[in-house]
UniProtKB/TrEMBL annotation:
InterPro entries: GH, Glyco_hydro_5, Glycosyl_Hydrolase_39
UniProt entry keywords in alphabetical sequence: Glycosidase, Hydrolase
GO molecular function: hydrolase activity, hydrolyzing O-glycosyl compounds
UniProt protein name: Cellulase (Glycosyl hydrolase family 5)
GO biological process terms on file: polysaccharide catabolic process
Membrane-spanning residues: none
Organism: Actinoplanes regularis
Glycoside hydrolase family domain segment(s): 65-304
Family statement drawn from the similarity comment of this UniProt entry: Belongs to the glycosyl hydrolase 5 (cellulase A) family.
Keyword Hydrolase attributed: yes
Length: 404
């Protein structure tokens, strides 16, 4: 996310109705110790003191787990347990399963994930997306291409539910960031809504109690035909009747180098949930879809990249900043959990990601992990663990929240 002007972030005032304090001691529990210490600021402690409920916490792994050895897979999921996550979000890539054709299914890679997660009492949120070559829109040569035939995708969704519902998978996210070029050749609310309705119907025919989550919306401004602002896209699909087919809306409000709790003059992704002339909350209310809550199925901050690292809320573009320091990442992780827990519209938050993809600094996308590429933990690992522990009610095990 790039911002063109520097602004000083302010703390958003939290509404009085958010409830009683649950974690006055968070300022102590978040002190990690040693050179990786993350000392909570007054803002962080204030947010924690107002968080009033348990929230579904998870780690988002993208499409990495299917390619791991059994040992590495086990270690990756053990980390989810260690940080206190109850959920994992993983790509159920259509391309991975049916690369060879419509009559060929290679479920074994994903089977391992579900079995390993179940063994650790982790709930799985599969994101069904990514089109194999034979099923792509004509002239589109990318796994992010939209399907040329909705029925083919629907069949895959149905087969996935048939296989994994008996294994305990009952929550599904349909596609990833359909409002940007993760839906190629260009985002299309009508085409996405058609696919969403069909796949939701197919999954529920197999598993009537399944929870369906609308594909995670990227936070951005409308730009030509390549990007549609999250609130505009949501408004379009709701007007087309999508609310009757989903139980929640997924959103990806990356805010780095700012904190989710910061208030700015330009609105970070997190601010777009509630504030401004248009917001996700206002779109839901305007379309009579107030029952739909938000699942933040991706958020995080990279600690490497081609430019400079920020250790606070400073403008990315003007200062040549592309990422944050490891200490800042840890602070963002803490603030992410406490801010989400204080917001009654948010039911879940997934931190992206588990481990850096590589040490190549040409791409900041390689550095979102709680661990470095060599496997050593960043300060954010313990910070996230302590933050999750502080916001979870000790006697309450979070479950999917499905509206009536």
């Amino acid at each position: 996310m790039l911002f063109g002007v520097t602004f000083s972030p302010r703390r958003r005032a939290l509404s009085p109705h958010l409830g009683k304090a649950i974690a006055a001691s968070l300022a102590l529990t978040l002190c990690i110790g040693g050179e990786n210490s993350v000392v909570p600021t007054e803002k962080t402690a204030h947010t924690a003191a107002q968080a009033s409920r348990a929230i579904n916490a998870g780690l988002a792994y993208g499409d990495t787990l299917v390619w791991m050895s059994d040992k590495r897979l086990g270690q990756a999921l053990d980390d989810a347990v260690t940080v206190g996550a109850k959920w994992i979000r993983v790509d159920l890539s259509w391309q991975d399963i049916q690369y060879d054709g419509r009559d060929s299914y290679r479920w074994d890679r994903f089977d391992r994930i579900v079995r390993a997660a179940t063994k650790r009492h982790l709930q799985v949120l599969p994101t069904i997306s990514y089109t194999p070559p034979w099923a792509r829109t004509a002239g589109c040569d990318d796994l992010r291409c939209s399907p040329k035939n909705t029925k083919e995708f629907t069949k895959f969704a149905s087969e996935a539910a048939h296989r994994y519902a008996p294994m305990g998978v009952h929550t599904w996210e349909i596609w990833n960031e359909p409002n940007i070029l993760f839906w190629r050749p260009a985002p299309n609310p009508a085409a996405y809504t058609k696919l969403l309705k069909a796949s939701s119907t197919a999954i529920r025919e197999i598993d009537p109690s399944a929870m369906i989550i609308m594909g995670g919306l990227a936070s951005n401004k409308t730009r030509g035909t390549s990007k549609i602002a999250e609130y505009e896209f949501l408004d379009s699909v709701l007007k087309l009747g999508a609310a009757d087919y989903v139980d929640a809306v997924a959103f990806h409000p990356y805010t780095y180098p700012y904190l989710p709790s910061d208030e700015t003059d330009f609105r970070t992704g997190w601010e777009k949930i509630h504030s401004g002339k248009e917001s996700l909350q206002k779109v839901l209310e305007r379309n009579g879809a107030q029952r739909l809550h938000i699942w933040i199925t991706e958020t995080g901050a990279p600690t490497g990249g081609p430019g400079k690292a920020a250790n606070g809320g400073v403008d990315l573009a003007q200062h040549g900043i592309t990422h944050v320091t490891e200490k800042r990442q840890a602070t963002i992780a803490v603030d992410t959990m406490t801010t989400a827990a204080a917001d009654p519209l948010i039911d879940a938050v997934f931190w992206y990601s588990h481990r850096d993809l590589s040490t190549n600094k040409e791409e900041r996308t390689n550095f979102f992990g709680l661990r470095r590429a060599d496997g050593t933990a960043k300060p954010a690992f313990d910070a996230l663990r302590n933050a999750i522990q502080a916001i979870q009610a000790p006697s309450q095990k979070p479950e999917p929240v499905k509206s009536d």
